[in-house]
Amino acid sequence: MRLKVHFEKCTGCRACEMACSAKHYKKYSPELSRIRIVKFEEKGTDIPVACKQCVIAPCVTNCPVDALYKDPETMATLLHEEKCIGCGVCVESCPFSAAALDDRGISMICDLCEGNPECVAVCPVDALEATDMAKIEEKKRIATAEKHSQNVMKKWKIK
What we know:
Elements (H helix, E strand, L loop, with lengths): L1 E4 L9 H11 L10 E5 L4 E5 L8 H5 L5 E3 L6 E3 L9 H5 L6 E2 L5 E2 L9 H5 L5 E4 L1 H23 L4
Antiparallel strand pairs: 1-8, 2-3, 4-5, 6-7
């Protein structure tokens, strides 16, 4: 499972950040959220930044103390909190800037809330979706096929 972000739907309400921080820290704090909203005031755009749950995750691979690992069943990135030394290699390694350190210096990586992501549940505009790669691949495949079929129909003047 992974989070699919529908950027065009996000209103910047930050409900996802509040739900995430409340779930993991029992506090309402954007700084303690594992999903972050980046606001571009001048463009009027809000972009959610979330962990992509990489299959070959640089944060996991590069962690010098093996504090991060992949759950063998769900493939979610998880943390052995007691092993984390707060070095920030996970933050530096993440190609999507989705990793962060909490106020104690401990790694914050999305764990998908044990298969029921709080951020998805509270998003009022469905900008977040819990899905798997097979569904994402299929949707993209269908969209690409539709686009190509329209081009073929235009070329052959078929309605």
